[in-house]
Design brief:
about 325 residues; alpha/beta; TIM Barrel; two-stranded antiparallel sheet; 14 helices; globular
């Protein structure tokens, strides 16, 4: 499977669509649009003291709706795939997701990828959405979306979370077929669902090569058990790199923005490299981040506990040549 590059497309204000032509020149496999209400970055340290970004934006949480924005991007591009990274099945009902994905597939002439996930605390808890049992809810939503795309006529469905009675979704599939579903997954149950139902895997957060290799093996094993071709599932990898000479890296590793990467790492990913997570052994990384409770004092205390070696154990680092070798 050849290595291809993808790019994020920013979904926060100020909105800028002027660079889409350059992103659509054939260099990228896909453009990924985050679907958030709030950022991972806590308000308590969104100040120039901690990040230069605070000087150009009054808030880290100025997110626009990813599906609406995907329609605008589809109308302004012609070659590159478009993807959500990723939409949860708590804030959005699976019937509406199925319809929106079909709409965007027709708008983009078959270029849309539906990136789905179980949901993160930061986008659920502050707004009163249920954030327990999200994986079970996701599994049911995933099955329902597939059913809606493959059923002719009325559909009855009685699940634990969703109920349909003579429900219809009669919009035909695009001639390229149903939209591919890529699943954001780290934990065992979600990795199994990638193998059983996913067309692609979007790993959340950073992980070392050994952790990544083990997760991919779980996906492929689940695919084989489900009677699917494991090689038909496209794996992705989001890579954060620290570029610099040794002296520069030591300085970079003291910056709060870099230290905050530890919040996106799971305790299991750090344990696999022999490091302990300062948030505890049950920390699930991105899924557990809640900017509301991460006060300035709490974060400063956390940053004091961050071992730079723990970050370096999972993040490629060094000169450009060294990073390329890693």
């Amino acid at each position: 499977m050849p290595l291809e590059l993808a790019s994020f497309f920013r979904t926060t204000l100020p909105l800028d669509l002027s660079g889409l032509a350059a992103l659509d020149d054939g260099r990228y496999h896909s453009l990924w649009m985050p679907d958030h209400l709030v950022s991972f970055w806590p308000d308590s340290i969104w100040t120039p003291e901690f990040t230069d970004l605070a000087e150009v934006s009054p808030s880290p949480h100025r997110y626009l709706d990813a599906l609406t924005l995907a329609g605008a991007v589809a109308a302004r591009t012609a070659r590159t795939r478009l993807a959500t990274s990723v939409i949860d099945t708590v804030r959005r009902h699976p019937v509406m997701l199925a319809q929106s994905a079909l709409t965007l597939t027709h708008l983009s002439n078959g270029r849309f990828i539906l990136g789905l996930g179980a949901g993160e605390r930061e986008n659920l808890a502050p707004y009163g959405f249920e954030h327990e049992g999200t994986v079970s809810r996701f599994a049911e939503a995933l099955r329902l979306i597939r059913l809606l795309w493959s059923t002719d006529g009325p559909l009855d469905f009685a699940g634990q979370y969703f109920t349909l009675e003579h429900a219809r979704l009669d919009a035909e599939l695009h001639h390229t077929g149903p939209p591919p579903i890529w699943i954001g997954a780290n934990g065992p149950r979600m990795l199994r669902l990638v193998g059983e139902f996913g067309d692609g895997w979007w790993p959340t957060g950073s992980a070392g090569p050994d952790t990544y290799r083990g997760q991919l093996a779980r996906i492929r094993e689940a695919a084989e058990q489900a009677g699917r071709d494991p090689q038909a599932i496209t794996p992705a990898k989001m890579v954060v790199c620290l570029i610099g000479e040794p002296d520069e890296l030591r300085e970079i590793l003291q910056r709060p923005l870099v230290k905050s990467l530890i919040l996106q790492l799971t305790a299991d990913a750090l344990a696999a490299t022999g490091n302990r997570h300062p948030m505890g052994e049950h920390w699930r990384g991105i899924q557990d981040i809640d900017p509301r409770v991460l006060t300035r004092d709490r974060l400063l205390q956390l940053f004091e506990q961050v071992d730079p070696a723990a970050i370096l154990s999972v993040v490629p680092h060094g000169t450009p040549e060294q990073v390329a070798g890693q």
